[in-house]
Amino acid sequence: MLEVGDIGRFSKVGNYSSYCHCVSSKRLSNGKKKGENNKKNGNKYLAWAYVEAAHFATRYIPGAQRFYQQKMAKTNGAVATKALANKLARASYFIMRDQVPFDEDMLFK
Questions:
Q1: Is 83 helix (H, G, I), strand (E, B) or coil?
Q2: Contact at 8 Å (CB) between 46 and 20?
């Protein structure tokens, strides 16, 4: 919360995920790369923190382990970790915006 500041400055959850470097910034047209949208904008420390949170979640939260294993079956480990980090970033956005506690069941159903 201290790194983010006022959560109200992000109108949508996707804007927050992009700020945290949890999604790619590529622009594609017909499957071809056409550029990158402001790749250096955002907070690199939040990107690191969410990847670390994803590593700990895969160790200690059974739902996160299942999600990680499903992604690992389709892609490699880095993509699976980043997908879990994005899921945690989206959840933390709603936690900060709505001032509610973390609920594992809502996140990993």
A1: helix
A2: yes
- One pLDDT digit (tens) per residue for the chain, 109 residues: 888 889 999 999 988 998 898 887 777 888 888 877 766 677 889 999 999 999 999 999 999 999 999 999 999 999 999 999 999 999 999 999 999 998 888 888 8
Instruction: Determine the distance from the C-alpha atom of residue 58 to the mean position of all C-alpha atoms in its chain, rounded to a whole number.
Output: 14
DSSP H or E run through 35: strand 32-36
Name residue, tokens 């809502």: 106
| Angle, helices 77-98/44-60, rounded to nearest 10 degrees | 100
Report the DSSP beta bridge partners of residue 27.
35
